[in-house]
């Protein structure tokens, strides 16, 4: 396995773990705060949170597995398509790659030379990269992503569950909300950093989503409980 493949696998696992933890925090905090709006019974709140964590763990893991597996299947299909295209219409594929290089500001002659050299070295890899934007044989692990998510989701859910059940009734909702927002700020920043997105914007968006989720579920719980 090449270093590049190892990096891709590592990033895949980290991404799945961060997103799993984020969903665990957000989903379970919504559940336990919603139930806390309806009842002060700590055991009932804990059971609701535990059930949500269990269901979310399975759902998140299966979602990661299906998503990554589908991505890998699409890459395999693209490879098959390009293999056939090179056999039946090599000239068209050559012209496509050359045009891509010319669109980047490379002169016609230099683009033709670069295309000729690249195609001679690895025609399939070159056309797949230029047409579909990925490198051959760098598929990431669907099972690895599922396992990372399966571990991270319940770990993320532990924070709101412990806070809401162990703190005194008169402070547990605001204290839990505060702890959850700090955790969501961290996971939002981490997810953005890994994906190359705007970190500040992603952090604020994640925190706002958490605030909205907790307010809505608490209000609904309060209406049902009273």
UniProtKB/TrEMBL annotation:
Species lineage, top-down?
Answer: Bacteria, Bacillati, Bacillota, Bacilli, Lactobacillales
Which compartment or compartments is the protein found in? Endomembrane system
Quote any Pfam family the record assigns.
VIT1
Write out the entry's keywords from A to Z.
Membrane, Transmembrane, Transmembrane helix
Mainly localized where? Answer: membrane
Q: What is this protein called?
A: VIT family protein
Looking at the UniProt entry, the stretches that span the membrane are 12-37, 43-62, 140-167, 173-192, 204-224
A GO CC annotation recorded here is: endomembrane system
MF terms in GO: manganese ion transmembrane transporter activity
GO BP term, pick one: intracellular manganese ion homeostasis
- At the top level, the lineage of the source is Bacteria
Membrane topology, record value:
Multi-pass membrane protein
């Amino acid at each position: 396995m090449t270093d590049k493949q190892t990096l891709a696998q590592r990033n895949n696992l980290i991404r799945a773990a961060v997103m799993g933890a984020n969903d665990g925090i957000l989903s379970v905090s919504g559940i336990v705060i919603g139930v806390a709006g309806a009842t002060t019974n700590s055991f009932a709140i804990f059971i609701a949170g535990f059930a949500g964590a269990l269901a979310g763990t399975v759902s998140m893991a299966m979602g990661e597995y299906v998503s990554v597996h589908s991505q890998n299947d699409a890459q395999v299909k693209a490879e098959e398509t390009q293999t056939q295209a090179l056999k039946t219409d090599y000239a068209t594929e050559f012209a496509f790659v050359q045009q891509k290089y010319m669109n980047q500001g490379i002169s016609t002659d230099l683009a033709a030379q670069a295309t000729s050299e690249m195609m001679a070295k690895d025609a399939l890899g070159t056309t797949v990269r230029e047409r579909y934007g990925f490198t051959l044989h760098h598929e990431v692990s669907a099972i690895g992503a599922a396992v990372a998510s399966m571990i991270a989701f319940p770990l993320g859910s532990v924070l709101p569950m412990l806070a809401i059940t162990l703190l005194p009734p008169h402070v547990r909702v605001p204290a839990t909300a505060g702890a959850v927002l700090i955790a969501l700020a961290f996971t939002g920043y981490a997810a953005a950093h890994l994906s190359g997105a705007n970190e500040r914007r992603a952090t604020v968006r994640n925190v706002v989503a958490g605030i909205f989720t907790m307010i809505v579920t608490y209000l609904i719980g309060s209406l049902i409980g009273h």
